Amino acid sequence: MEVVIVPDAKAGGELIAEAMAALVRRKPDALLGVATGSTPLPVYEALAAKVRAGEVDASRARVCQLDEYVGLPAGHPESYRAVVLREVVEPLGLSEASFMGPDGSAEDIVAACEAYDRALAAAGGVDLQLLGIGTDGHIGFNEPCSSLASRTRIKTLTEQTRIDNARFFDDDMDQVPHHVITQGIGTILDARHLVLLATGEGKAEAVAQTVEGPLSALVPASALQLHRHATVVVDEAAASKLKLADYFRHTYANKPAWQGL
């Protein structure tokens, strides 16, 4: 896979935002897969700045969700749909109609998962999927030992994940959902381009296992090794355990000018 080492999170955000902008210039109605959390915020901020500056017209672009809580009422401010609307859709000046996501409040969650997979395929597939990575190597909510062929499905949150997410629910564990809908690893691999962003020393071991370790269900992100166009963007801290870090720096620095992410 392609590994790009950048100085810091801001540089990584700018690099990925330009890749997204270039995609939208080539394909104005591109379907962009987005992730939630703090890691991708520099990407969305940089892309929104390009839109405001008139560097790219994203008005026809579409956005789709990676995962969603199960059981939160419609409009709950901490649903991932609400987060994506706040952090991506509104800053880019998109309409809510451009947004696709699974229905976490559906009565039949299994059917909702299957419907979301069908909707992504009917939309022509995801052109670029942005991913984060957990310290244990998970992507989306595909925890260690998830099937590498899995499709969109319901997953039970680990207790540690619920504890980590309690800060978004006034530190009240009773409010934190127990389940989520997540795109499966197989669904994620259907995207035409996968871009994983990782920053900070805490992600260094997971990045090393993903890039240089064996393909293993114990490290779900290692499935990116199977993809024909996967890019891993890491800052120096997250790259600190890569044995081939110097090689990756040299390779990217000497890429032909026409070859972008």
TrEMBL record:
Activity modulation comment: Allosterically activated by N-acetylglucosamine 6-phosphate (GlcNAc6P).
Pathway: Amino-sugar metabolism; N-acetylneuraminate degradation; D-fructose 6-phosphate from N-acetylneuraminate: step 5/5
GO CC terms in record: cytoplasm
Gene Ontology MF, one: identical protein binding
Protein's UniProt keywords contain Lyase: no
Gene Ontology terms: biological process: carbohydrate metabolic process; glucosamine catabolic process; N-acetylglucosamine catabolic process; N-acetylneuraminate catabolic process
Record EC number: 3.5.99.6
Superkingdom classification of source: Bacteria
Domain (Glucosamine/galactosamine-6-phosphate isomerase) ranges: 10-230
InterPro entries (UniProt xref): Glc/Gal-6P_isomerase (IPR006148), Glucosamine6P_isomerase (IPR004547), Glucosamine6P_isomerase_CS (IPR018321), NagB/RpiA_transferase-like (IPR037171)
UniProt enzyme class: hydrolase
Family per similarity comment: Belongs to the glucosamine/galactosamine-6-phosphate isomerase family. NagB subfamily.
Protein's name according to its UniProt entry: Glucosamine-6-phosphate deaminase
Gene: nagB
